[in-house]
Amino acid sequence: MAQAQFTRETAATGEFVRQPNRFTDRVTADSDAAPGDGPDEAGRWPVQAGRYRLIWSRACPWAHRARIVLGLLGLDEAIGIGTVDPIRDERGWRFTLDPDGRDPVLGVEYLAQTYRASDPDFVGRVTVPALVDTVTGRVVSNDYPQLTLDFSTQWRALHRAGAPDLYPRELRAELDRLMADIHRDVNNGVYRCGFAVGQQAYEEAYRALFDRLDALSERLTDRRYLMGDVLTEADIRLFTTLVRFDAVYHNHFKCNRNKLSEMPVLWAYARDLYQTPGFGDTVDFDHIKRHYYGTHPAINPTGIVPLGPDPSGWTTPHGRG
């Protein structure tokens, strides 16, 4: 079998199997913990402005979705934001973008330090996004699917005026099914292609990815957003994969049946979102490319970062809306 990028997350069949999220506590409106305390006996931390810090990477799609949701809801006024360097070394995500190479609030050089403070026995990959409690220095959650839903549902008292409802109650059953399909075949599907070390595992992931993209393209033919006329969490989750597609997934992860720019409906849809405030202004193609091409030596041993593609197409008219 070929060398795996992440050996602990590679099955004997050559399939990439993503590790589970280690920290799954939640910040909830019904927490019994007083401000400054927490969590309560049920593992619920209190909603409190200024207490928590979201650590993200501009390169990571899972973290990117949290950053978009935070901004759309206006929660960037209530939750601090720390940004890690797109290049990880052997100790993981680094705060080298900050003065003295430390997060100015948490005081750590590596996100791994907060993981160890929360669980000294943790041996998996340190991942972003991570919501960290600034009082204790503990990681509250790296559970990226639940984290953004909680921003929408549990932090409502701190949303900005006019914030969108990204997880409408009446749509949740359909949204949950749709987001599960998108996660399995697209969000995680590109990784199942890129990190596969067996031909069959790769081909199965490849077919599932493009079958799902074709279905989503058909769904979006006669509607602006995945759920119709309203922007939801599902659009954000799809966007963060689509915006990386031509820059890294098409080539680096061998997702090369088509480029996004060769799929007319999805390309127009993605440009529509990119040009929406809160989306394109959070995209950093330099960080994206340097991270993927520079930190996966099993896939790209030379570490060369491609100069293309030209990102100017993202700002061209999309004809939707």
UniProtKB/TrEMBL annotation:
It comes from Micromonospora zhanjiangensis. PANTHER family: GLUTATHIONE S-TRANSFERASE OMEGA-LIKE 1-RELATED (PTHR32419:SF6), GLUTATHIONYL-HYDROQUINONE REDUCTASE (PTHR32419). The keyword Repeat does not apply. Its EC number is 1.8.5.-. This is Glutathione S-transferase family protein. Residues 21-44 are annotated as: Disordered. PROSITE patterns: GST_CTER (PS50405). Pfam families: GST_C_2 (PF13410), GST_N_2 (PF13409). Residues 168-295 form the GST C-terminal domain. Keywords: Oxidoreductase. InterPro entries: Glutathione-S-Trfase_C-like, Glutathione-S-Trfase_C_sf, Glutathione_S-Trfase, Glutathione_S-Trfase_N, GST_Omega-like_C, GST_Omega/GSH, Thioredoxin-like_sf. GO terms for molecular function: oxidoreductase activity.
